[in-house]
Design brief:
Layout lengths: L8 E4 L8 E5 L10 E4 L12 H4 L15 E2 L8 E2 L2 H19 L4 E5 L5 H14 L5 E3 L6 H11 L17 E5 L3 H4 L4 H9 L3 E5 L5 H5 L2 E3 L6 H14 L5 H7 E2 L1 H8 L4 H8 L3 H13 L3 E5 L1 H4 L4 H14 L9 E4 L6 H4 L8 E2 L3 E2 L3 H11 L13 H7 L8 E5 L3 H4 L3 H10 L2 E6 L11 E4 L8 E4 L4 E5 L12 H11 L10 H12 L11 H7 L2 E2 L25 E2 L18 E6 L15 H6 L4 E4 L1 H7 L6 E6 L2 E9 L7 E5 L13 E4 L6 E2 L3 E8 L20
Parallel strand pairs: 6-7, 6-16, 8-9, 8-12, 9-10, 11-22, 12-13, 16-17, 17-18, 23-27, 24-26
Antiparallel strand pairs: 1-2, 2-3, 4-5, 4-18, 14-15, 19-20, 20-21, 23-30, 25-26, 25-30, 28-29
This protein binds iron/sulfur cluster.
The site of iron/sulfur cluster (SF4) has 14 residues, from helix 1.
Length: about 725
């Protein structure tokens, strides 16, 4: 199809949760045709800005190794070869039927992603529970915001990213950002922080690295990895000592503060300085800045959340925010910086092991009854709570675990902790099917690969980091041979004789999602495509068509039974794996400007590869000198779980006791070969952000040369 001179299509960037607005145009918007990207001024999150990833997003549509035909391997050792859709779907159906016949419904696992549209996330959760009747579904968002979600659920009764529109940040008197490097992960976000600074507000950044975000801060606190909780408790100690609490707010809007006061008595400044390495005057300045004005924010990113005690770490920052009277006041509050494109919506509508649509719990009888009625099944036929993401991956192919997995929109071979063990589990499966648009590291291990449509080729909704539901609009048709995830799920449900209806039209699926979410915490009942278009997005909860949506929840009351926010006392215990003589250096991981998540997309985009061609390890020059490492050397970094080989990048922006590796690359350069899968007891978040490693130089000629992913090796010429 050729849409000559068709009007530009208004949509959003395919990558992160800022969901920058962009228009897609071009003289030939047919499959494979050129697309012109124009940033949208009317979308206030990016206000006409895009980062390099957004500007180059159209290249993803035409990468040379784009999957355009299903592929299948005859046996585990055989190469993947192109096949027809019927052959691929027959194979999936027969494997599901065979394995469930032998082992029961939970023999099949489903793994989703935080980049899927709301419609796809919803349909995937329904497909698992109704078509497969399996409890074994989770998604990679578990590795992203789950600790903040658990902590905000505990404190406020509801988890919704930012506490208000992002433009509120620009009027703040102070913003404390713990564990987020937005200057690299979502650069247009920086405009809002800059607005606040230019109006006299203060930016305080908590990060073990002097990141580009930290360099812009008025105050940078640089704690030892894994000690953020001690720091937050120490800041609360100082707030109490200096009489900065909002006593009237505490009395009127919160409960449980006295137990927290008792615990933070143990976090006197000198002790906290010893634990965290942050000087007492810096802590004192931070808390005074936060308390000096009327409008302050405390925000957390993955640095404060991806820990085996991540829920408690976030809780410590929420306790501080509550003590200062911030949440539930206009222009103030606590917020989480969601990472993945639909990290917010993707965790609301049922692809999480313990969830049904609308942020309902799957073990709540009333929730089961409501959703079962929408799906046309009996509540007793819905499975119960399944395994969380890492536990699910860890169980694959074991005697008690699933024997097969269907995976959509995720690449756990690169993104999961202790990645080599994940590879082993995938290889132990009887059957693996992956739907993706490129041959990711995980797709290459599959028995069946289904070529899926991607962002500009499909429609749907995404919920951004503000909690605003927005439209993703199709600008081009998918290449011939490619199907959307909704089409794939609909045809599989039909072949599996699933009860109920299975539309492959996003608008119809969204209408069903509205009904299924009605009355839940994440209530989308009043949100329609028409309203989203007319109003520039709608904030949930929005229970009815005449409801205006909820940009700032909690202004009147929190979503707890008594309407009050809940304090929870939390204690510092350090990382799950501390340094010792054998592994004497902390490793922390994160992102760089020109790459995104597992890199399956951005490692295929030429300008992004030029900007960030390979993984590296940041090492302080003093540590490098002690270890005999020079800038650019190959370095072998080893933890108790594996070894990665990357090139050294010397910088005094990192602590002497800590090294940093970005996690976007595959093969031997994978940061997640090293990371610790110790799980948070509440959120089941792995401890990505700190583990113990040792470093040794390798000969320069042995240093890694990490190329763009090659095409699937054998038989992939489809
Ligand atoms: Fe895309 Fe995020 Fe960059 Fe915006 S900040 S252009 S949404 S990757």
């Amino acid at each position: 199809m050729t849409d000559t001179a068709a009007p530009d299509v208004r949509t959003h960037c395919p990558y992160c949760a800022l969901q920058c607005g962009m228009s897609l145009g071009g003289d030939d918007r047919g499959p494979g045709g050129p697309l012109r990207i124009t940033p949208r001024e009317d979308v206030r999150t990016n206000r006409g800005g895009l980062c390099q990833k957004g500007w180059t997003a159209a290249e993803m549509l035409t990468v040379p190794d784009r999957l355009t035909s299903p592929m299948m391997r005859a046996t585990r050792d055989a190469p993947l070869r192109p096949c027809t859709w019927d052959q691929a779907l027959d194979r999936i159906t027969s494997e599901v039927t065979r394995l469930q016949g032998a082992y029961g419904p939970d023999a099949i696992a489903v793994f989703g992603g935080g980049g899927l549209t709301n419609e796809k996330a919803y349909q995937l959760g329904k497909f698992a529970r109704v078509a497969l009747r399996t409890s074994q579904i989770d998604y990679n968002g578990r590795f992203c915001m789950s600790s903040a979600a658990a902590a905000t659920g505990r404190a406020f009764g509801m988890d919704r990213g930012l506490p208000g529109p992002i433009t509120d940040l620009g009027r703040a008197d102070a913003i404390l950002l713990a564990g987020g490097n937005v200057a690299e992960t979502m650069p247009p976000f920086m405009r809002h922080l800059t607005d606040a600074q230019e109006a006299g507000g203060a930016l305080i950044v908590v990060d073990p690295r002097r990141t580009p975000t930290a360099r812009q801060a008025n105050l940078h606190l640089q704690p030892t990895p894994g000690t953020d909780l001690a720091l937050a408790n120490g800041l609360l100690y100082l707030a109490i000592e200096e009489g900065l609490l909002d006593e009237a707010y505490l009395a009127a809007r919160t409960g449980g503060f006295e137990a927290v006061r008792t615990v933070v008595n143990g976090y006197w400044p000198d002790r906290v300085e010893r634990v965290t390495g942050v000087p007492v005057p810096h802590m004192r300045e931070a808390v005074r800045l936060l308390a000096r004005g009327e409008r302050s924010y405390i925000l957390t990113g993955r640095g404060a959340e991806q820990h085996a005690r991540g829920t408690d770490m976030v809780t410590a920052f929420i306790n501080l925010a509550l003590a200062l009277g911030l949440p539930g006041r206009p222009g103030s509050g606590y917020g989480c910086l969601t990472g993945q494109g639909n990290g917010q919506g993707g965790r609301e509508h049922g692809q999480k092991a313990d969830q049904l649509p609308g942020y309902r719990r799957i073990d709540d009888p009333a929730a089961r009854a409501h959703v079962a009625a929408v799906w046309g099944v009996h509540p007793d036929d819905l499975p119960g709570v399944g395994r969380s993401a890492y536990e699910l991956l860890e169980a694959l192919g074991t005697p008690e675990g699933p024997k097969a997995m269907l995976l959509f929109g995720s690449n756990p071979v690169v993104s999961a902790p202790r990645a080599s063990a994940v590879e082993e589990r995938l290889d132990a499966l009887d059957f693996l099917a992956v739907a993706d648009f490129v041959p990711s590291e995980t797709a290459r291990r599959a028995d069946v690969v289904l070529p899926a449509a991607q962002w500009a080729e499909e429609s749907g909704t995404m919920t951004n980091l503000e909690g605003r539901v927005q439209r993703r609009n199709r600008a081009v048709l998918p290449p011939e041979g490619v199907r959307t995830d909704l089409e794939i799920l609909a045809v599989l449900a039909d072949r599996l004789h699933a009860p109920g209806t299975w539309s492959d039209e996003p608008a119809e699926v969204f209408e069903e999602l509205r009904e299924a979410s009605a009355g839940g915490l994440a209530d989308y009942a009043g949100i329609s495509y028409r309203r989203i278009d007319a109003e520039g997005g709608v904030f949930w909860p929005c229970p009815s068509e005449d409801h205006p949506g909820t940009p700032r929840p909690f202004l009147e009351r929190f979503a707890t039974p008594d309407g009050r926010a809940r304090f929870t006392p939390v204690e510092h215990s350090g990382p799950a794996e501390d340094v010792d003589p054998e592994y004497p250096v902390y490793l922390t991981t994160g992102r760089v400007l020109a790459q995104y998540q597992s890199g399956a997309q951005t490692r295929r985009v030429g300008p992004l590869v030029e900007a960030a061609p390979e993984a590296f390890v940041e090492v302080h020059p003093d540590l490098a000198e002690r270890l005999g490492i020079a800038d650019g050397d190959g370095v072998r970094v080893a933890s108790r779980r594996g070894t990665a080989t990357v090139r050294a990048r010397l910088t005094d922006a990192i602590r002497h006791d800590t090294v940093f590796i970005p996690f976007h690359w595959g093969g031997e350069a994978r940061a997640n070969l090293l990371t610790n899968p110790a799980l948070d007891p509440m959120s089941r978040m792995p401890e990505f952000k700190v583990c113990a490693v040792r470093l040794e130089p390798v000969l320069p000629e042995s240093a890694p040369d990490v190329p763009i992913d090659a095409r699937i090796e054998e038989g992939a010429s489809a």
